[in-house]
Design brief:
This protein is an alpha/beta fold. The protein has ten helices and twelve strands.
């Protein structure tokens, strides 16, 4: 049985939804740690976390999602946890989600032959192996379900190995909310990238993990009710697509970090182009259908300039 610590990062959360998220998590994990990024209502958040049986740590300033997750992981390892479960403030886990995510990590590592040195290393480190590949399994993730539409979100899959079943789906990357990462994997891959602050923090870690020989897998039976953006609408672009609404500030981070990934040695050129295309499409649709077009365009221009200059961390101003 894995001792799992849920690490929930908050910033100005919907308090009723946070209550629901904490209530769903508490029976499934050994500990719940909430790290608040200097929300104005941090005292109320702390009270609700205590009522739910969790631990609370409030930051004096907004340090970003990545650094808060790293602080949570550091606490979890010091507390003797076997794995961390990264969670967003507005994501609600199904009652059996954590058990389903943990199960693949509890399988005995298969025998590694001479042609699979990485598998041998994984066996010694205690990481399970992805069936059919022999790659060490560094992360499992649930199938996110859009809480507004009830529709499952699309998984970014990799080619399934021969003999792979549908219980464990190899993925190129997964979203942060619901990522279950064993301690050994965190030690091998390293922490989240602070410089990204927010947006594509999860993408970068996943791509780094895969470049190091690790495997990521989704467990479709494990469900997570998840919310993207503050709202959304369907737009016809060859087919009906759902586009979440984000603030101009979030568009800054999306564009800057999508372009910043192209500089990293572990991000392949094709993946970098695809990520940049996705960001461009999202921003283009937002500029057409959402208000505050001038603010959004100024944020996008600043993001492009900062990406070219190699600037990371928090945005230099608010939009």
């Amino acid at each position: 049985m894995l001792k799992v610590c849920a690490v929930v990062v908050t910033w100005r959360p919907d308090l009723a939804l946070l209550d629901e998220a904490l209530a769903a998590l508490r029976p499934q994990v050994a500990a719940v740690l909430v790290i608040d990024n200097a929300s104005p209502e941090c005292a109320e958040i702390a009270a609700r976390v205590a009522h739910a049986g969790g631990r609370f740590h409030g930051m004096r300033r907004n340090v970003g999602l990545a650094r808060a997750q790293n602080l949570g992981a550091r606490w979890a390892w010091a507390a003797g946890m076997d794995a961390i479960l990264l969670m967003d403030q507005d994501s609600v886990a199904a009652p059996d989600m954590v058990a389903l995510l943990a199960a693949p990590h509890l399988r005995s590592a298969v025998s590694a032959d001479a042609a699979q040195p990485d598998a041998a290393d994984a066996s010694r480190s205690g990481l399970a192996l992805l069936p059919g590949t022999g790659a060490p399994l560094v992360c499992t993730a649930p199938l996110p379900v859009d809480a507004r539409t009830g529709m499952p979100m699309r998984l970014i899959r990799t080619a399934a190995p021969a003999g792979q079943d549908d219980d464990l789906v190899p993925c190129a990357f997964v979203i942060a909310s619901g990522m279950l990462i064993p301690r050994a994997a965190w030690r091998c891959i390293g922490p989240m990238c602070d410089a990204l602050f927010i947006d594509h923090v999860d993408t970068e870690w996943c791509l780094r993990a895969r470049a190091a020989g690790g495997a990521l897998a989704a467990v479709p039976a494990a469900r997570l009710m998840h919310r993207l953006g503050t709202d959304g609408r369907r737009v016809w672009l060859g087919r009906w697509r759902y586009f979440p609404h984000h603030s101009p500030m979030r568009h800054y981070y999306m564009v800057r970090n999508s372009l910043a990934l192209r500089r990293l040695p572990h991000v392949r050129a094709g993946m970098a182009r695809w990520l940049a295309w996705r960001a461009a499409l999202l921003v283009l649709v937002s500029l057409v259908v959402l208000p505050e077009r001038r603010r959004r365009w100024r944020a996008v221009r600043a993001a492009i300039a900062d990406a070219r200059a190699g600037r990371g961390g928090p945005a230099p101003r608010a939009w």
